[in-house]
Design a protein that fits this description.
351 residues, alpha+beta, Jelly Rolls, 2 domains, seven-stranded antiparallel sheet, 12 strands, 38% helix
């Protein structure tokens, strides 16, 4: 085993809990040490890709040994540990978000701030987005200043005090989204799916009322947690993601006209609500919660959990909101220098 790679693995693995190893070995038909041995003997350049935000790794042997499950378990523990060290675990919003996977906050902005924002968004949409679409907010600092808790909510999930990468003018991306609904067949977002293998955060501030017929954001409560059922589902996907001949490939892989890296897996694509709900029941979940709300409602979610645009809606119906998000590499400890690795700062050295 490469001793430099072993050192990296040893540092990361101290953030795993005994229950993580137990879950891993209940689901994966290999013990944990088998995977560690394989990782420790990798070529360093390939080892690099494992500890990045890339959604999946095309390595059949490592996936068979549980690589993607390991990445998911580890990423969530690392993010949680970083957040705890910075005191974010003390926030009620953090606890609620990590318990359910989503959070709905009514009357989020002060009335005067929301009225100011609403007027400007409606004016912009009337001039530029009458037929629907999404447009970037190029000065997001002004938007976030209306209630800087939005910045706190993004920082708390990632366990950071400052933003870096994935930014627009120094702040997390924010966009005006005037969604004009298309039929189910033309909209991949109307199929229940997970965005990636680790916890992350997206937010939607409703500029107009969003009722059921307007296709609200829908979320499966608790589906972001690494239960044995969810871990087994992720393990299955890691083995079929690069195999178009697999019988579940069509129902699990994101529909795209061009190929994308697997990772945003679907619960039961093409089967719509009934088929999705049947699969959710098999995995131990309830049907999705519809995040309806009056204007000035803020919805937050870790999109590792199963979510979608609610599909029971007439094509052409409008939903107007501001969407924002922040996503970075959940594995911050190692950096690559050509063919060798150096160990980054151990941010939990006092653990």
């Amino acid at each position: 085993m490469n001793q430099d790679l072993k050192k990296v693995l040893d540092v990361y693995n101290k953030y795993l809990e005994p229950e993580d190893i137990k879950t891993f070995e209940e689901v994966i038909p290999f013990n944990f040490d088998t995977l560690m041995s394989s990782l420790g003997n990798m070529e360093p350049g390939r080892f690099a890709s494992i500890f990045t935000e890339v959604k999946s790794i095309n390595n059949p042997l490592l996936n068979e040994q549980g690589l993607q499950v390991y990445r998911s378990l580890l990423a969530d523990r690392v993010l949680s540990a970083k957040s705890k060290k910075l005191g974010y675990h003390d926030l009620d919003e953090y606890q609620k978000l990590m318990k359910d996977g989503f959070l709905i906050l009514d009357d989020f902005l002060p009335d005067s701030s929301f009225n100011w924002l609403e007027d400007r968004v409606q004016e912009f949409v009337s001039a530029n987005l009458q037929d629907g679409g999404r447009a970037p907010i190029y000065n997001p600092k002004k938007f976030y200043s209306l209630n800087d808790k939005m910045l706190t909510y993004m920082k708390m999930v990632w366990g950071v005090t400052e933003f870096y990468s994935d930014l627009r003018d120094g702040y997390p991306r924010a966009d005006v989204d005037n969604l004009i609904h298309e039929p189910y067949e033309n909209d991949v977002q109307k199929s229940l799916h997970t965005d990636t293998f680790h916890n992350t955060i997206k937010g939607w501030l409703y500029i107009s009322d969003v009722e059921e017929h307007q296709g609200p954001f829908a979320y499966v409560k608790g589906s972001h947690s690494n239960t044995p059922e969810r871990v087994a589902w992720d393990y299955e996907n890691s083995k079929l993601g690069y195999d178009p001949k697999h019988p579940l490939y069509k129902s699990r892989i994101e529909r795209r006209k061009t190929w994308v890296t697997p990772g945003s897996y679907r619960i039961a694509d093409y089967e719509r609500g009934a088929g999705e709900n049947e699969e959710l029941k098999r995995l131990g979940y309830d049907e999705p919660t519809l995040c309806t709300g009056k204007k000035n409602t803020l919805v937050l979610a870790t999109t590792k959990g199963f979510h979608k645009r609610h599909e029971v809606v007439e094509p052409g119906t409008q939903r107007l909101c501001i969407q924002f998000q922040f996503r970075i590499n959940p594995f911050p400890l190692v950096t690559e220098r050509r063919e060798r690795y150096i160990l980054g700062q151990d941010f939990l050295e006092e653990k």
